Write a sequence for this structure.
């Protein structure tokens, strides 16, 4: 999500190349007929294809990457892409806007090393998941998560969300309860309620969100690049902990998301999570940077922490919104210790 301030609107296949053998059809009297030449060509092509076919079949059978169907749009299925690695107590990692499951690369490695089964997935509209024209609200996102957990038959599962991913966790608990769950971790949290309202004077003026949508519609690539600079607090302490190449790589991920979904998700940000939060009876940890320029800590984490009984609340001094990357070691240590 671009900067939010209260002050002012400020098909699978092998990469190996398989070339058909080159066969010259000899003229009459050369000692080989055209039919024989074609037979030899077919045999040669088959011999080259067999290893590739065998490899592709093996890859398909052992590949931990797959899809889960969560709905339909007209003639097309809506599918969620996920990856499932390791064994042990399960952890599901839910990414922020406008990235995908790859954003968790540093946490995935640490959690696997600690003996967890780690599942990441791409939210609908993002990454390798389907990009439908509708369904970009938290009731639908929570339903997608519910289908994922049910399809994989996960119990005793810990949910870890970053930014927009914290909304899935909070709304999932509000709609489906905590029977399947073990613990929850909210990093750079979205709740409890971002937009200013008569009963939420601490919120952000609604014009900020409509301005974000206008920027995305006018020039999505430029708007996303500016967002990513704020995501990592470029110019601040955390901005020194991230390279230009990282920002460029995240921009490539973001620009590959659904243009419709990218804009529509802004409306989801301002959903009210206060009734969902009170249903959270899980051991919960909140981690937030005090230099978060996307979701300022006073509007979000400090307020949400007061609403969850027994919450473990960690503030990272100088931390940006992108702390899963800039403070990966610290985040990973806290995660491994909390989820053990």
């Amino acid at each position: 999500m671009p900067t939010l301030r209260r002050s002012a609107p400020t098909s699978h296949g092998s990469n190996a190349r398989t070339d058909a053998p080159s066969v010259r059809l000899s003229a009459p009297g050369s000692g080989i007929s055209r039919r024989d030449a074609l037979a030899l060509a077919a045999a040669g092509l088959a011999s080259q294809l067999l290893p590739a076919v065998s490899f592709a079949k093996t890859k398909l059978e052992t590949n931990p990457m797959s899809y889960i169907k969560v709905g339909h749009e007209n003639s097309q299925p809506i599918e969620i892409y996920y990856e499932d690695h390791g064994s042990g107590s399960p952890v599901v990692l839910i990414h922020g806007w406008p990235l995908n499951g790859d954003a968790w690369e540093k946490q995935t490695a640490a959690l696997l090393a600690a003996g967890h089964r780690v599942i990441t997935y791409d939210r609908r509209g993002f990454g390798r998941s389907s990009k439908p024209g509708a369904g970009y609200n938290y009731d639908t996102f929570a339903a997608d998560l519910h289908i994922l957990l049910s399809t994989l038959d996960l119990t005793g599962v810990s949910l870890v969300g970053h930014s927009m991913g914290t909304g899935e966790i909070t709304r999932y608990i509000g709609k489906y309860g905590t029977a399947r769950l073990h613990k929850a971790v909210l990093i750079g949290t979205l709740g409890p309620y971002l937009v200013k309202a008569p009963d939420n004077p601490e919120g952000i003026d609604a014009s900020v969100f409509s301005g974000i949508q206008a920027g995305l519609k006018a020039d999505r690539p430029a708007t996303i690049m500016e967002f990513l600079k704020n995501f990592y607090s470029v110019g601040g302490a955390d901005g020194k902990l991230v390279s230009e190449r990282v920002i460029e790589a995240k921009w490539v991920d973001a620009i590959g998301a659904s243009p419709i979904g990218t804009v529509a998700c802004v409306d989801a940000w301002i959903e009210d999570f206060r009734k969902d939060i009170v249903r959270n009876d899980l051991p919960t940890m909140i981690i937030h940077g005090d230099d978060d320029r996307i979701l300022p800590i006073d509007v979000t984490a400090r307020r949400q922490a007061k609403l969850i009984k027994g919450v473990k609340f960690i503030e990272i001094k100088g931390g940006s919104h992108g702390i899963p990357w800039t403070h990966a070691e610290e985040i990973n240590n806290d995660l491994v210790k909390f989820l053990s």
User: Anything to note?
Assistant: The first helix runs from residue 34 to 62. Confidence is low (pLDDT under 50) at residues 5-35, 37-62. The domain at 67-339 is CATH 3.40.50.1820 (Rossmann fold). The chain has one domain: 67-339.
